[in-house]
Specification:
By secondary structure, this protein is an alpha+beta fold. Helices cover 58% and strands 13% of the residues. α1 packs across α5 and α3 packs across α4.
Length: 167
């Protein structure tokens, strides 16, 4: 049995299929974001999604999750702070560390965009033949897990929005 690190090289067909699906999903995300606001870029929205899905993050951890330089994450957060979508707070135990949290406006933006995305994806998935849908679920879960994504249903479960603490 092959270990994960020894997986065979994926086929070109698999890579091309994922690229096609990715283009479709990015288009859905862009349309959904545009329906809610024209003030937030897809990259900034991705930062909001990371904070929404993982809870309050140190700026360094957000940069790591986004796979960007810390200075890039700082500039992105500065713009989101000016728009009132995130807040920045110094940690009491390490004054050099900064924690980024969604504001109520940021949570609402993520919720609105997610509703639009869910509705459009629902329409697309409804066109997948019923007998193929379980295979699609399995494939997409495996892909999201390999990418390190937090499962959709886990978002903010157990988080107290007022205190940004795990219950």
């Amino acid at each position: 049995m092959l270990e994960r690190s020894q997986s065979p090289t994926p086929s070109a067909e698999l890579v091309d299929s994922v690229l096609s699906a990715s283009r479709a999903l990015v288009a859905v995300a862009a349309r959904s974001l545009a329906q809610v606001t024209d003030d937030v870029t897809l990259a900034q929205y991705r930062a909001l999604i990371e904070v929404a899905s993982r809870g309050p993050l140190r700026l360094a951890d957000l940069a790591l999750a986004l796979r960007v330089d810390r200075s890039t994450a700082t500039r992105m957060c500065d713009r989101l702070i000016r728009r009132g979508l995130v807040s920045r707070r110094r940690l009491a135990d390490d004054r050099r560390a900064v924690r980024i949290s969604l504001t109520p406006a940021g949570r609402e933006l993520v919720a609105q965009v997610s509703r639009h995305r869910r509705a459009e994806i629902g329409q697309i998935v409804a066109r997948v033949p019923a007998h193929e849908q379980p295979m699609v679920v399995q494939a997409l879960r495996a892909f999201a897990q390999a990418a390190g994504e937090v499962p959709e249903q886990s978002w903010t479960l157990g988080w107290n929005i007022e205190t940004d603490a795990v219950q």
